[in-house]
Amino acid sequence: MNSDIAEMNLEQGATEILEFARWNGKPECPRCESESVRQVKSKSGGRNKRFLWRCHSCKKQFTVRIGSELENCKISALKLINAIIECKNAFQAYKLLGISYMSALFLFDRIREPRMMITLKAMCKQGMIKKAGHRSFINIA
Asked: Structure pTM?
């Protein structure tokens, strides 16, 4: 049970890293480009487990992946960030992250030159993302 909670917290942190890399602290709807958005909360008051956002203008729900190169990617945010930061090719991602080789190929086909990858690598160089083994942690000041 505690490992599930810890894993959920890591996934939430990884999703927040992706959100910061994409929106730089100012989230906007990928459909109508409105900045009038809010996080969808769970019944307990925390983040929704799917990390949804809701646009007040078009009334649609979205995640950080919608409208990006990673839209149809089912790989967890934690594995995505670790692949972007630590892996140089699909074979290395397959070995390091424990995903199938086809998933690793799909992932590296998607992240060759997207804006999000460039931003994440810059954040890592500036010390905003700390690496600890196979896990990455955000450190936004």
From this structure: 0.73
